[in-house]
Amino acid sequence: MSFKKNNGWQRLDNAAKIFPSNSTKRDTKVFRFCCELTEPVDPVLLQPALEATLESFPLYRAVLKRGLFWYYFEQSDLPATVQPELAAPCQPLYIKGQKNLLFAVTYYRCRINLEIYHALTDGTGAMNMLQLLVSHYLALRHPEDFPHGRAAIPYDASMAQRMDDSFYKYYSGRRHPRQKEPNACQISGSRLAENRIRVTEGVLSVRQLLDLAHQYDCTLTIFLTAVFLQATSWEIPQKALKKPVVASVPVNLRQYFHSQSARNFFGVINVGYDFLHGSDQLAAIIASLKADFARELTREKLEQRMDSFGALERNPFIKLVPLSLKDPVLHLAGWASGQKNTVAISNVGKVKLPPALQPYVRLFSVFVSTEKVQVCLCSCGDALTASFTSPFASTEIEKNFFRILTGMGAAVQLDCSTPDSWLLPPSPTGPEKEVP
């Protein structure tokens, strides 16, 4: 369904509908994708590269509007202008009552940043856009190396495929029994002032991490989720561990259902561990997570979740409820969903660049606004970037995470604002409570 067919408007996909009602100054529902080049960015060339990129992503020129019953996208002619990075990351892009584009492109030294509002697209859609932007930019920056124009990125979807609402396409209409999930323990503590988030990034070797994961006969995602849960459990009071420590894990549904949509097409699973009754050793956590992932990551299970959310959207009564009444209900639903997990981990996966682009790119990274502690994983070549965002003043969980990995022999390069003492291995009985 295109803007042209709908006289300049476009409905939100099923996953996008909850974001406007749950966007706050504390959690803006904005995520940032970064590409760090091997040379400083030329903003004069980045602007035409952005304009060329947007020709392939017309939906991203839309603004978000309030209707009587639902939010919707409206086609706009607002200019998209490249800006230097001056503000704190993940600032609001959707502001009620204002007509704004839902993405922004900024630059800082060698980094090109794409920030995007989650109602517009998910991580896969944003990464496809950023790769195309980088490809256009490098063709302009180094025309001698790209005599035939930009290098082709591995995303050749047609315009119709990019605009596709895959949730609508794959909704089966079947009824499924409701699945109840227990509440998870929650992290508490002093928060940063002015609704800011702290960003901590570490760059690791994909090869080293895969070697460690293979020692436990598991995938990289399961291995790092287990490390994250263990690092988190060390900072939770014993009485709070009566509830499991649970990680929310977004799932790219394109891996299970054929889709090349540039819009949202993701699901979420919750995987956790009972530290009160189980061993706190990494091997035990991994064994439990392997069972959780195997149970949840099937087409049948993911389809059940899609159908459940799709049925709510299509409920005749809910359709007729005015948006002014839907907003508080959707906000409450978002809060209730947040009680089911403690932290979040998202593995965007491997960025596969054309060979012509590889000499100019150092790494990619991703991070998001959040009300919890969240880590996003993204790799390019042998460099895997683990980017933590947190609203809390304490950095103990992040420190524990990297110390566990360095204690197992993994090399970690932290950003310059992070103390080297973080890379000291943890004590055999758990974390050190004082930073050396």
Description:
The chain has helices at residues 19-22, 43-54, 123-141, 159-162, 166-170, 206-215, 220-233, 282-296, 299-314, 316-320, 323-338, 396-407, and strands at residues 9-11, 30-37, 63-66, 71-74, 83-84, 103-108, 111-117, 198-205, 245-252, 266-273, 343-350, 361-368, 374-380, 383-390, 412-414. The chain contains 12 helices and 15 strands. It folds into 2 domains: 9-146 and 164-170, Chloramphenicol acetyltransferase-like domain (Chloramphenicol Acetyltransferase); 193-353 and 369-423, Chloramphenicol Acetyltransferase. It has a 7-stranded mixed β-sheet with strand order 10-9-11-13-14-8-15. The termini are far apart. The radius of gyration is 22 Å and the shape is globular. With 436 residues, it is α+β, with helices and mostly antiparallel strands. α2 (43-54) packs across α3 (123-141) and α7 packs across α8 (282-296).
Map the helices and strands.
Elements lengths: L8 E3 L7 H4 L7 E8 L5 H12 L8 E4 L4 E4 L8 E2 L18 E6 L2 E7 L5 H19 L17 H4 L3 H5 L27 E8 H10 L4 H14 L11 E8 L13 E8 L8 H15 L2 H16 L1 H5 L2 H16 L4 E8 L10 E8 L5 E7 L2 E8 L5 H12 L4 E3 L22
Parallel strand pairs: 5-6, 9-11, 11-13
Antiparallel strand pairs: 1-4, 2-7, 2-12, 3-4, 6-7, 8-14, 8-15, 9-10, 13-14
The overall number of domains is 2
Largest sheet: 7 strands, mixed
Strand adjacency order, main sheet: 10-9-11-13-14-8-15
Q: What number is the mean pLDDT?
A: 91
**CATH fold node name of the largest domain:** Chloramphenicol Acetyltransferase
CATH uppermost class of the largest domain: Alpha Beta
Taken from the alpha-carbon principal axes, the silhouette is globular
H/E element order: EHEHEEEEEHHHEHHEEHHHHEEEEHE
Number of helices: 12
Number of strands: 15
Distance between the termini: 57 Å
CATH architecture of the largest domain: 2-Layer Sandwich
Low-pLDDT residue intervals, each spanning 5 or more residues:
432-436
- Radius of gyration, CA atoms, in whole angstroms: 22 Å
β-strand amount: 15-25%
What is the percent of helical residues?
25-40%
Structural class: alpha+beta
CATH-assigned homologous superfamily of the largest domain? Nonribosomal peptide synthetase, condensation domain
Protein name: Alcohol acetyltransferase
